[in-house]
Amino acid sequence: MVGLKEELLKSIWHAFTALDLDRSGKVSKSQLKASGVLSHNLCTVLNVPHDPVALEEHFRDDDEGPVSNQGYMPYLNKFILEKVQGNFDKVEFNRMCWTLCAKKNLSKSPLLISDEDAFKVWVIFNFLSEDKYPLIIVPEEIEYLLKKLTEAMGAGWQQEQFDHYKIALNTSREGLSAWELIDLVGSGQFSKGMDRQTVSMAINEVFNELILDVLKQGYMLKKGHKRKNWTERWFVLKPSIISYYVSEDLKDKKGDIILDGNCCVEALPDKDGKKCLFLIKCLDKSFEISASDKKKKQEWIQAIQTTVNLLRAGSPPPHKEARQKRKELRQKLLAEQEELERQMKELQTANENKQKELETVRKQLEAAAARAAEEEKKRLQTQVELQDRFSLELEREKMVRQKMEEQVAQKSSELEQYLQRVRELEEMYKQLQEALEDEKQARQDEETVRKLQARLLEEESAKRAELEKWHLEQQQTIQMTEAEKQELENQRMIKEQALQVAMQQLEQLELERKEALEQYEEVKKKLEMAANNTKSWKDKVAHHEGLIRLIEPGSKNPHLITNWGPAAFTEAELEQREKSWKGKKAASE
User: Fold this and answer.
1) Nearest to 113, CA basis, from 178, 202, 18, 176
2) Quick count: other Cβ atoms within 10 Å of Cβ 271?
3) Of 138, 145, 155, nearest to 120 (Cα)?
4) Is 330 exposed, middle or buried (0-12, 13-18, 19+ CB in 10 A)?
5) Which UniProt keywords apply (predicted)?
6) At how many degrees (to 10) do helices 524-541 and 318-522 cross?
7) How does DSSP classify residue 82?
8) What is the rounded distance in angstroms from the CA atom of residue 550 to the CA atom of residue 531?
9) How many CB atoms are closer than 10 A to CB 478?
């Protein structure tokens, strides 16, 4: 809403300043009514409720009833602009403000553009002008506008001509007012060779782009949703909507295509005799469009896709974003220029201070030179006196120097002895440091050995406790099993006899297993016959507590190795049979 308020203020400023001011800079009593009429018209075009009493209440404290330029703006902000919601016709609003100010300010000299074109240039000025009053358009924005108009007219841009104009403009002022810009465009200075119609069409095209936010427009065919027929429509693309009309005069509107971040556009192959097709997909429906040629098709697809991308990113239209970037660039350059001027002033001040310091030093040097000349005279006078005195002191100094030389020789001898002592102390210090390092390393090794011994003692204590525990358990087990020992011995004898019988059978089975393996390697059929032969043995050994298992081909389980070769049972099967035997024994007891 801040940007909208600034745009409205610019147009209202033109309308308000068109009121005749007296010498005191205030509006007369009779013009208070005119201000009320202006406020009423603003409320009407902006769709804001009008309070006819508010203006008089706002200025009741003024006995004479005038309203100053500063006094009207608070009223405007409080009672009108703060209530604007954006649901108004911007062109109608601008036209109302233009009507109030054009008659007074528009040049009376003949122009190459119509009043309608002048109105559009005035609106474009409000869009491109700086946000400070009185309103002006800077040379950079003038160049941007003239380039847009030249491009719309299909002519070449004359940069050198504008540079000369810019130099002449910068020497006199910062920029142009709205009426000076209209005179510049209407003079034909930058549109030589172009007729009025071409200039008017160019102004209308730039007006549509910058003010009405028209990103693209043109004729295309649209497929109906009910009758499925193709009808030519005039399409107008704006930042969030595509409107289509019967013709380019925009009088008979047939519908809108609402765009948002969920929309997409894609090309379609030619069908039903229609070429250059593309599809606009929205949430509620899709629209099939046929362009006049491939170039137009690609331009529309790219323009719609760019619009959708801007909606997804929440970015403003390209021309508004470009205007903001140009304004930020100007502000940055202005700040840099101000900083440079500040630095130049500081350098100038520093230079002046240096000049003053140099002048002071020069004066000091002159004074010092005068003092030096005076002192030179005194020095020459005292030199003769000093020579006689120095001759006497020279003899005395020779005697003192001899004594000093003897003392220096003695001190040198003492110094040499002192340095020798220092070197010895440094050597002793190095040896002491090495001894300390050795002692530190020995302590670290001793600490490591001590920790290792402690850990070994702990492990030995734990193992000793565990052995004692096992010893007690073993003694308890021996005491408990003495009674069973005899019975176990008898059973062992029986088992040994059975084991001998089983061993004999096992040897016999081992021979047969080897023969079966050899036969398996020769041919698979002999292996099947060997398997049938060994099946009968499996029934026989089942009566001997299942201690023997016939070897079958294809087993991948690990086998135990006995003194007689590979065992007939795996380790897991032996553990299972041992548990079963212990269970039977416990049940019998």
Assistant:
1) 202
2) 9
3) 145
4) middle
5) Cell membrane, Cell projection, Coiled coil, Cytoplasm, DNA-binding, Membrane, Nucleus, Phosphoprotein
6) 70
7) G
8) 9
9) 10
Which of 524 and 164 is assigned the larger pLDDT? 164
- Reported as half-sphere exposure (CB side, CA atoms, 13 A), residue 271 has a value of 9
Residues whose CB is less than 8 angstroms from the CB of residue 36 and which lie 6 or more positions away in sequence, other chains included: 52, 55
Cis peptide before 134 (omega within 30 of 0): yes
Give this prediction's pTM.
0.54
Give the separation between CA 574 and CA 538, rounded to whole angstroms: 17
Q: Model confidence over 489-511: pLDDT tens digits?
A: 888 888 888 788 778 877 887 78
Here the tokens at position 324 are 């903001």
3-state secondary structure of 434: helix
Arithmetic mean of pLDDT, 125-138: 87
Q: Reduced to 3 states, what is the DSSP secondary structure of residue 496?
A: helix
CA distance linking residue 582 with residue 524, whole number of Å? 41
Residue 10's nearest CA partner among 85, 84, 101 is 101
Residue carrying the six token digits 């610019």: 10
- DSSP for residue 317: P
Separation between Cα atoms, residue 471 and residue 174, nearest integer Å: 111
Among 4, 6, 2, residue whose Cα is nearest residue 129: 6
Place 289 in a pLDDT band, splitting at 50, 70 and 90.
very high
Instruction: Write down the CATH number for the domain with range 216-316.
Output: 2.30.29.30
DSSP 8-state symbol, 83? G
Supply the Cα-derived Rg of the chain in whole angstroms: 57
Q: What is the pLDDT of residues 406-462, one digit of tens each?
A: 899 898 888 989 999 898 898 888 888 888 888 888 888 888 888 888 888 888 888
Q: Where are the beta strands (DSSP E) in 239-351?
A: 241-245, 253-258, 264-268, 277-281, 286-290
Q: Check: CB of residue 544 under 8 Å from CB of residue 502.
A: yes
